[in-house]
Fold this sequence. Notes:
The chain is α/β, with parallel strands linked by helices and 425 residues long. The chain has helices spanning 9-19, 52-55, 64-74, 89-100, 111-130, 151-155, 160-163, 181-190, 215-225, 290-293, 309-324, 327-347, 374-384, 407-422; strands at residues 31-35, 38-41, 46-49, 104-108, 138-142, 173-176, 194-199, 229-233, 269-272, 284-288, 352-358, 361-366, 387-388, 390-392, 396-399. InterPro entries: Aminotrans_3 (IPR005814), Class-III_PLP-dep_AT (IPR050103), Orn_aminotrans (IPR010164), PyrdxlP-dep_Trfase (IPR015424), PyrdxlP-dep_Trfase_major (IPR015421), PyrdxlP-dep_Trfase_small (IPR015422).
Amino acid sequence: MSVIDTITSNEAIALEEKYGAHNYHPLPVVLERGEGVYVWDVEGKRYFDFLSAYSAVNQGHCHPRIVGAMNEQAQKLTLTSRAFYNDVLGQYEKYATSYFGFDKLLPMNTGAEAVETAIKICRKWAYEKKGIPEEKAQIIVCENNFHGRTTTIISFSNDEGARKNFGPYTPGFVKVAYDDLQALEETLKENKNVAGFLVEPIQGEAGVYTPADDYMLKAKELCNKYDVLFIADEIQTGIARTGALLAVCGSCSCEGHCERQETYSRPDILILGKALSGGAYPVSAVLADNAIMNVIKPGQHGSTFGGNPVAGKVAMAALEVVKDEHLAQNARKLGELFRAEMNKYIENSGIVHLVRGRGLLNAIVINDTEDSSTAWDICMALKEHGLLAKPTHGNIIRFAPPLVMTKDKLLQCVQIITRTLKDFE
Ligand SMILES: *Cc1c(COP(=O)(O)O)cnc(C)c1O
C-alpha cells in the first residue's frame, strides 16, 4: 500500500502547494472517486459535480462503458505512433465522421492542440486554395475568447493573466466583438486576406456568454459570402452539453448528425475535445471535408499520441453513450427546468443578477464587482452543502453538471443552490 491510500485533504493540498507549479487556484477539496453526477473527497464526503471538468465529463464520472472500452484496449495495444497503422483508428474515424457528418477527421489529444491544428489547416487552405499571398493570412477571432493555452492561442486572448509576459505573440489574428455581426462583416469587407473566423458558439470561459439565437447562422452566412472558413470551437459546447449534439445545431435535438435543420450552421472546420472522451482520456479532433482537410499531406502535421488505439476506443464508447442515453435531450429538458427554477429565485434576489445559458451549460451572474470575493465565498458555501462549482471571471458562477443528471437530483441541487444563496442576501 502506498501513502496515497491514506492521505488527508490537508496533506494532499500541502503536497501540491510545495511540489507543484502554482498555475491553478483550486477550491480546497481533494477528490478521490467519482460516479455519474457524484464525486467523493478523501474524507468520504459526497458532492454533486457542477463543473464536470469544464464539460469533459458530460457522460458522468467513470462511465462503465467508457472505462470498460479503455481497460480492454489498454490490455491489448496502447500506442504505435502513426509510423504504423493500428486496427482501431480507421474504425474510429469512420464512426466519428459519420456521427458528425464530415468527410475526414484529424486526431489530436488536447483541446489546444486541436485548435492549433485548425489554425494550421485554415492557413494552408488560404494559401493553397483561396490564393492569399504568402504570410498574409488573417484569422478573425472574438473578444473575450478562450481557445486554450499555447503561445499562438494566448497571442489572441484578451485575458491579461493568460497573456502578460508570454510574448512575443504570434501575428495573423484580428479581433472583433462577440455576438456582433456588423463588426464581423466590416472586418470581412475591409480585409481581403481573411482566411477564417474562429468562434465559440457560447463563450464558456468568458462566463457562459450566450449570443443571439441567430448569431452562428448569420456568421456562417457571412463566412460563405466572403469565402472564409467558419471554424467552430465546440470543445466545451459540443457533444450534447447545450441540449443538441453540437451547439451549432441550434434548436435541433436529434441524437446524431442531420443536414436537414435550417438552424444548423455547419462549420467548415469543427473542433472537438473534452467530452469526446467522456473525461476518461485526452482525446481531441478536427473534422472537415476533403476539399479542406486534403491540404494536409504526410509529414506536415502530427502528434505521437494522436490517433492511438485507446483514444479511438474511448471516443467511440463516449459518443455511443451520448446517443444511447439521449444526453442531448436530457440536457435540453433539464436545462430549461434549471433556468426556470433559478429565474423564480432571482425574482426576489438581491445577490443574483441573472441566469443564462443553453442546455446544461449555465451560469449565474452575482450582483457584485468582478474583483469581489462573493462568488468565491458562495462556491465555498456550496461545497460545504455538497455541491462543487467554480467562479469564472470573478462574479460569475458556472453550473454544468454531468448530463446523466436526473430531474429529481437536479431539483435537489436547485435546493442546495438557492438555500446557499439565501445566506448571502
Ligand atoms: C477547454 C477549452 C479549450 C482547450 O482545451 P484543453 O484540452 O484544455 O487544451 C479550447 N477551447 C475551448 C472552447 C475550451 O473550453
